[in-house]
Amino acid sequence: MRIIIHGVGAIGGVVGAALALSGQEVLGIARGRMLDAIRDKGIALVSVNGRQETSFPCVAHPSEIDFRPDDIVLLCVKGQDSVAALEALRAAGLRDQALFCCQNGVVNERVALRYFPNVHGVTVMLPGTYIEPGEVITHGAPCYGMFETGRVPGGTDAADLALKQALERANIACFPSEAVMESKYGKLLLNLGNTVDALLPQGAEQAPFTKRLVAEAKTVLRAAGIVWRDVGMDDPRRNEFMRVVPLEGAARAGSSTRQSLARGAGSVETDYLNGEIALLGRLHGVPAPLNARMAVLAAELVAAGKGAGGMSVEELEAALVA
Ligand SMILES: NC(=O)C1=CN([C@@H]2O[C@H](COP(=O)(O)OP(=O)(O)OC[C@H]3O[C@@H](n4cnc5c(N)ncnc54)[C@H](OP(=O)(O)O)[C@@H]3O)[C@@H](O)[C@H]2O)C=CC1
Ligand SMILES: CC(C)(CO)C(=O)C(=O)O
Questions:
Q1: Which of the ends of the chain has fewer CB neighbours closer than 10 A, N or C?
Q2: Which family does it belong to (predicted)?
Q3: Residue with the nearest Cα to atom 7 of ligand 2?
């Protein structure tokens, strides 16, 4: 079995490097400065176990891959990049192989099912950081991360088991689940604060904003009849397998959305996080003005070419009532 990582950034980089260090065959699909750095000098994984250098082969495009029947593909791009990645995978010959959406948000799996029959969701609990090309950081301990996986719409199969075994050899806890989307909706609630974290200066009080966004979202999910499962610290597995710990000399660079802005990535995932709540609210006739506004603010920030942390608490408060 070969594990193909589509999108070698924070999550794809940590998972790919940890798998490679465990002896697993890995192939990356990367781009830009990360691709150049890995080809030039490999990749460094920074974690509670220190800094470990490793390497795995990387291509720039799926068309360079001869897919094997027992390949497993981990889709590790941001939600706004999914369609392009899925189209390229199909054009390159991927067919019935298991495809795992290692992504936040709840729509990637549904999109992937248009292209492929064997789609699995993954609830990714892994505080990953990618700022410098060729280096990825995880603040997860004792395991680097904790994943829940399962087929979409439901059930588990041999691919979940095979991935679990490979991930656990690489120090990433993995729990196959018959209803993975329930935990992905739980994770969506945790991600409603990503853009708050991206907009405000580091150290600013985020909780009053995220609480309001989550309360609004819960009303929307209930009206939509969507069941979710809590995946925060109330999940007893979190304390045992994956706590967020400080690492000397390697500060966490904030949420994945903040990291996109810090890297000048040119897009953020907010339309698939807060924007999902806005969408569900509109479909089910429940107002979700706060989450809808967050999506607009994020789009404005990207369009203005602004970096992370440019808004004060007072400005965000005013923007949310505007
Ligand atoms: N970081 C974290 O702590 C966590 C992230 N997640 C989720 O995991 C998913 C991945 O996030 P994260 O790893 O942070 O994102 P990153 O932006 O760090 O990594 C994604 C990588 O994929 C690359 N990419 C995008 N499209 C393509 C393509 N077509 N071909 C090749 N490479 C491509 C991006 O390149 P480029 O940089 O040029 O855009 C980037 O390097 C997201 O859904 C996120 O919400 C979940 C839990 C925690
Ligand atoms: C780790 C967490 C929950 C928030 O930082 C996340 O999922 C992200 O950064 O996207």
A1: C
A2: Belongs to the ketopantoate reductase family.
A3: 191
